[in-house]
Amino acid sequence: MADVLIIGGGPAGLSAAIYVQRAGKQALVLEQLVVGGQIVNTPEVENYPGIKKISGFEFSMGLYEQASDLGAEIAYERASGICQNSDKTYTVKTESGKDFIAKAVIIATGAKNRQLGLEKEGFLIGKGVSYCATCDGAFFKGKDVAVNGGGNTALEDALFLTNYCNKVYIIHRRDQFRGEPGNLEAVKNKENIEFILNSTITELKGQDKLEAVVVKDKNTEEIREISVQGLFVAIGQEPDNKGFSDVVDLDNGGYVSADESCKTKDPGIFVAGDCRTKAVRQLTTAASDGAIAALAACTYIG
Ligand code: NAP
Question: Does 173 sit in the ligand 1 pocket, CB within 6 Å?
């Protein structure tokens, strides 16, 4: 039995594990894929206080080592549900059929990449359509590619892709960007990036692999086909909390309802990071949530 079971090994979950261990309790982290969460795929992090510049991968590995050196345990399992036992402990069930028991639980499941929802999108994943420029960018050396989105991920992906690609189109549904001005400025200074603004992708073309995207300008209604071999979809994330909807409240977007205290309606279940209802989803706020949820969980255990 763990003292605190943490579902998710991203920045929020690993920060929570560090704080649980330092509080003298035993943390067990369940991670479905790789530790680090979304930030693993970010080429450069430049806004984490105290660290001028670091790759997302290096940052994640540092967090993981820090948590495991302090004694946190990790199991590579996908949690599928939580139920409370008669002795007030919790059982966390996993898709592989295992049960893990803990005195308190922190949900830190982050969010997964949002898809465009276009007809051929699923079929073309790995055949030109990607959600991770750092993972797949090198496959597009010398090619023309598009990035869809206007947030930091899209801007940073576009910058990263200029290292490999002949031309990078940034297709965005507005002419204002959510991404930081510094990132936008850097993108504007690149000669091989072209903006296609106020436009949405309406169709993906290609038989066996992506050949072109069809783009519609929402102001002029003009439809244009752009020949690209790669499309990097960077239109934000969605939470993945459905498995826990019987024990915690979810908001309209599917995020776990909780305020800055990271407490849910169940006194022994806490929530941390991007999977929680919140205004700002950043590495710093994920780490902050991890600390708050961990200390609240340790106080609850007593
Ligand atoms: P985001 O900030 O939510 O931006 C998503 C972008 O995709 C927005 O421009 C949005 O357009 C667009 N979009 C959403 N749904 C769409 C759809 N169905 N079709 C077309 N476009 C759509 O997501 P993100 O860029 O992945 O960033 C997520 C969080 O991580 C942010 O807080 C970001 O600052 C942070 N982040 C930080 C770093 C870093 O610190 N180095 C790096 C990456 C990400 P609208 O603007 O019109 O809504």
Answer: yes
